[in-house]
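Board notes (copied after class):
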Amino acid sequence: MTDPILRIQNLSVGFRDSETKEVINVLRDVSFDVPADHILGIVGESGCGKSITMHTVMGLLPRTAVVTGGAVTYGGTELLGLTPSEMNHYRGKEIAMIFQEPMTSLNPVYRVGDQIAEMLQLHQDITRQDALAEAVRKLELVSIASPEKVVNQYPHELSGGMRQRVMIAIAMACDPKILIADEPTTALDVTIQAQILALMKTLKEQMHSSVILITHDLGVVAEMADEVVVMYAGDVVEKATVLRLFKEPSHPYTTGLLKSLPMLHSSDERLYNIVGTVPSPRNFPQACRFAPRCEFVHDRCLAERPPLMRIAPDHEVACWLRVDEASG
């Protein structure tokens, strides 16, 4: 098996309280690999640590954030040890990111073409004229009609779907090896969502890049991903291929997420819901973080943190129920 293009090992991140200076833990020993030419879905409720993990990879953490442990390795290079100028070589060129809301991510006072050209000139030895010509080609690549016109428009002149395509064009401008998409279809209608997802899949196949898809939408994961990482309260609780995860979910949290999906032929009037909410990082349990919401909780869950255990060649889970089953 070839080495992964990106490896995250035991990554732990906290935020320093401005008054007490205490570091509040947000991520705890997060580990997973991203193979080349692969789509990895990261799922979980809001506040589970999905975006923070990827912001750490991109070197985009706020000043109050503290990496307290772990490693992030891209192609043999440890990213966490790089200076900001060294990280600029990788950010955008090797690893690019599409953020949740394109209207706030695009600069409102610069034309679309200028924003794509800026990315090209930052990472390539190219003139402004050639960069603007390439910007037109990038807009063609993301299926924007009349790209020669759109390069001269401002973001507010475009629809939500077009702005998201522009964001993808900027992210893919330098043909990165990894594209991180953070809730790329938020606030888009269903038809446009499907178009954006199909576009991302097509670009991934054309450029042989890997995609990390951050989402809370398991339907999107089923459609797009090869493998899934399930996160809860800063922990990885389950990892599996998409087929195995949907067929044989093993963590109670994953099972709850899947049971919450509306089913076309279900006779139940009410959807299943997981009791409670994701706790604040100040109140994260020290053992199993899902224990307060778990219907199968027992004493060991409250006392010890379950390890991430391999239960099949393509399946890992962190749950004492599964550990006990394997050992019993």
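Comment from the instructor: The mean pLDDT is 92. The longest strand covers residues 23-34.
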